[in-house]
Amino acid sequence: MLKMKNIFLAAAFLAALSINSAAQVAENKHAQRVPTRPARPFVVLPAQSLSELERKLRPENKAEELIGGDGMQLRVAVQHENNKAAATAEVHDASDDVYYVLEGAATLTLGGQLDAPREVEPGEWRAARVAGGQNVEITKGDLVIVPRGTPHARSTTGKEFSMILIKVFAVPIGAQAQIAQTPNQDASFAAIVQPSHAEFRLPLPARQEWKWRQPETPANAREYRMDVTVKNAGVEYTFGVYLWKRAGAKPDKGSLSDFLKEAQVSVFGRAPQSRGYSIIRDAGVEAKQEDGHLVITVKGRKNVERLFSSRPAEVTFKIEALGDSPASKAVPVSYQD
What is the pLDDT of residue 3? Predict the structure, then answer.
C-alpha cells in the first residue's frame, strides 16, 4: 500500500536543501570531530501499523504526529480529512512540505500568489485565496513536493483523504533568535501610554507549532511568560500572557491562536515588603497577536492610572517560552497626553 522508498527519498531531498550545520557538534580547529548523537529515537512503522493508524483517524479531521518537536528540523504526521472545504491559503517562508497520499483524493491549488496576505506568525502567511494558482487533483499513491515560498491550499469537499505529511524546517522547531541590542531590534518593542489606553508590543518567540502542558514540565510549573513589569507609586506590577501546567493536565499543541486561547491574561501586584504577588481582578488587560508581535493593551483610565500614575520612565519586557532561554528588555515609555 505504501511506497516507503518514495517517501523517504523525498524527505532526504528536502532535508538536503535545509539541514546544514545546525546539527553539527561545536568544535574549534584543534578539537576532534565526532558524529552527532540521535535527536530522537528512530521510527519504523510497518505497513499494517500504518494502515491501522490511517483507519483510526478516519472518523474525524485530525492528525497524529510520528516524529517532530523542539530541536527537530523534521516533522512527520499521518493526517486525515473528510469533506473539508478549502482551508486558508498558506505560504511558509522557512519550511518545505511533502504529501504522500495514502487513501482518497483532494484538490490542491499550487503556485500563483496569495490574495491580500497577512503574516499570522513570523514567516507564516495566510490569505483567503490563491490568485493565479494551478488546480491539481491528487489521489492514492501520488507524491507532492511544495517548496518553501509556494502558495498552496487544499480542499476535500465531498471526499475523504489521508496522507503522510512531511515538513522540513530551515531552523530547528522551537529555536528562538536572540534579541540583539540593536536599533532595528529595539523597534520590535514599544510601550505607549495614553490617559485611558496603553499599548505594549513585543516580538513573539519563533514557533512553527506551539506546545503546552508537556510531560516533562512539573505540575503547577509555568511554561510561558510574555509580560510587562513596571513600578508605580511603590508597587511593582506585572501584566501579560501566562500559561501554567496544572496537575493532571494533558499535553496539547496547536497554532498561536490556539495557544492564546489556552493561556491566561492577568495583572499581578506586589506592594513594598510583600513576599509575593497578588492577582488584580478586572484590570482591563487584553492580548492579541499582530504582525508577529504580541500586543498587550490596558483599557480604561482607572486601570492605566493604577499602573502609570507616577509616569515611570521605563518598563521591562520579559519573555519565557518552553524550550527557550529567558529574555528581557528595558524599554522607555512614550507618554501621549
Answer: 47
Tell me which of 3.30.2310.20, 2.60.120.10, 2.102.10.10, 2.130.10.10 is the CATH number of domain 4-169: 2.60.120.10
Q: State the alpha helices, DSSP H only, in the chain.
A: 4-18, 47-57, 183-186, 256-262, 301-308
Is residue 77 a contact partner of residue 168, using CB atoms and an 8 Å limit?
no
How would you label 71-99 residue by residue, b for 16+ Cβ within 10 Å and e otherwise? ebbbbbbbbbbbebebeebbbbebbbbbb
**pLDDT value at residue 11:** 46
Q: Map grid coordinates 482551508 to a residue.
A: 87
Instruction: At 186, give phi and psi (nearest 5°).
Output: -55, -30
Instruction: List, for residues 72-123, the tens digit of each pLDDT value.
Output: 788 899 998 888 876 689 999 888 999 999 999 999 999 999 998 887 777 7
Whole-number Å distance between alpha carbons of 71 and 334: 38
